[in-house]
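Agenda item 2: alpha-D-galactopyranose complex prediction
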Amino acid sequence: MAGQAATPATTASERFRDLVGAAPEGLWRAPGRVNLIGEHTDYNFGLALPFAIDRATVVAARRRQDNLVRALSCTLESQAIASLDDIAGKAPSYFEPWARFPFGVIWAMARAGAAVPGLDIVIASDVPIGGGLSSSAALSIAVAIAVNDIAAAGLSKAEIARAGQQAESEVAGLPCGLMDQLAVLEGQAGAAVLIDFLSLQTEQVPLGLGPLVVINTRVEHANAAGAYADRRNACEEAARELGVPSLRQATLEQVEDKLAGELRKRARHVVTEDGRVVEAAACLRNGQPIGDLLVASHASLRNDYEVSCAELDLAVDVALGSGADGARLTGAGFGGCAISVGATAEDLVTAMSGAFARAGFPQPEVFAVAPTDGAGRLA
Ligand code: GLA
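Presented output:
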């Protein structure tokens, strides 16, 4: 591809030929995602409004004649090999962190009844790793749809999403909900996906908000998985105290009257955030701005859910001071990315750079994103 920039698709297919000495059976793509609003609601059976972005992971794959699965990450220049027996015995947790996603999703798909053959898999991506844009769901879902096709397993999107979730929670150790996997699978160009985690129904909502820009703080929280699990446990405890199946069934009055301290704060975030998602979806359908809802979501995540950090708060403040209509942290928090709506990357980049330098923080990465189609086969 002389003269053209390498894309994940060209990288995956060229590196596959180098590694295997043959062409892949196909190329499968799964995008990252930005969650517009509805944070930490998925495992509480609430609502969220994410969109798939124009950054993706591409997998080149081909069946092998033996029972080995060999995976190469071009981003990390790292190769991992496991037998299907090791994978079935849940050996993936003995592998280095990145390989838990491909091996974990194969383990979950085999458990769901897929007859997975030996495979060569080459992975290339331009989703920032560990940045809150679901690089892990992009990886596991790209592998899952490749395996689903090659093994003719016939798993539905919901089953594939669950396999991705099981890989993340049972093998990689983050007890996540289903938002990332469903956003990656159900995204559509120009739209966000309104997901109801109680019914698992999805609805495409057109996104006409002007420029969408990600600010990647590059901060990685040392114990994000532990802090995430603590939040989830607190929500489940709050629901038990209120006598409801999940916080989806709780009202703000119940939360304020019957809970105290930390549980009240955690539950108040979840209940008010569900309300903001409903309002945001209605605004989008009517062509109205949602900036204030994004700002309120960030404040709730900072004050009540306590998952923000100084770098994310600064990114949000600088975006709002540079012409954005709204901004908030996106994803689990504890570092990672913020999303800004209504200002261009050019509007933001100089102000972010100056403010982060003055605060003594590492330089953030600022880039535009566009809502794109969800995961699928490329070739
Ligand atoms: C991570 C998890 C998701 C979701 C978000 C927070 O991205 O993987 O399931 O809980 O955090 O909204």
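Discussion summary: The CA atoms of residues 31 and 56 lie 4 Å apart.
Owner for follow-up: CH.
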